[in-house]
Amino acid sequence: MDERGKKYLIKEDKDFHSDFGFIKKEHLEKSEEGQILKTHLEKEFIVLKKDVNDYVELMERKCSIILPKDIGIIIAYTGLGAGSIVVEGGTGAGTTAIYFGNVVGSEGRVTSYEIREDFAKIAENNVKGFELENVRIKCQDIKKGIDEKDVDLIFLDLPKPWEMVEEVKKTLKNGAYLATYNPYIEQFQILHNILKKNGFKDIKTVECIFREMEIKSKGTRPKTRMLGHTGYLTFARKL
Ligand SMILES: C[S@@+](CC[C@H](N)C(=O)[O-])C[C@H]1O[C@@H](n2cnc3c(N)ncnc32)[C@H](O)[C@@H]1O
Fold first, then answer.
1. Where are the beta strands (DSSP E) in the chain?
2. Domain boundaries 53-237, CATH class
């Protein structure tokens, strides 16, 4: 991270170049987290070991992604944890797959379906860059069927999740969760009806309204600019 707070993803086996100058790879290789390194222009960089949030912020993406505020709720509401088996429909950049993979650990598994080859390639690279071995990207139309069985969580970031409800029911373990993300109210209204018809229980939709605080010498208050709306999260259990 540089003096301006800007973060960079770097490779230790290459010299690092920026508009603040360069740092030789020999210095990067020997560096430790929290250490200050100086470029040839005497600009300071602090060494930071990337966590999942740093990584997702900097990785490649060509579509909209789900934000941490919504991912946190999905993880908490579905009880996702070490060893969980997850299927995802709509990999996109791989953001949610990476967060899920990070949470389920080496005993768990995440399989994410992506219909577009170009997106699947980007997501595969992103997963590889975070060194996750428990996440698999399948370049496949999820609507043609889910190959996995006895799954703890199916997460769908697709425009018509209700078209998958019967397949989801066949794939989930008893008591396991479906979670969906949709930007429009009409989408979760249709989904609720279909979930009820298919006997799903504990059906609920939530929206997370998130405000960051601004702390200044004049006073403390919510930031004046905020993200008005991302999406609605719907949860249901197979019982
Ligand atoms: C909004 S993106 C997902 C973003 C992802 N959750 C993230 O946070 O990075 C939705 C993705 O679903 C994919 N998609 C749409 N229909 C699909 C289908 N039937 N099977 C698999 N993927 C599909 C799209 O190509 C797109 O990449």
1. 16-18, 21-23, 36-38, 44-46, 85-89, 109-113, 135-138, 151-156, 172-182, 201-206, 213-215, 220-222, 232-237
2. alpha beta
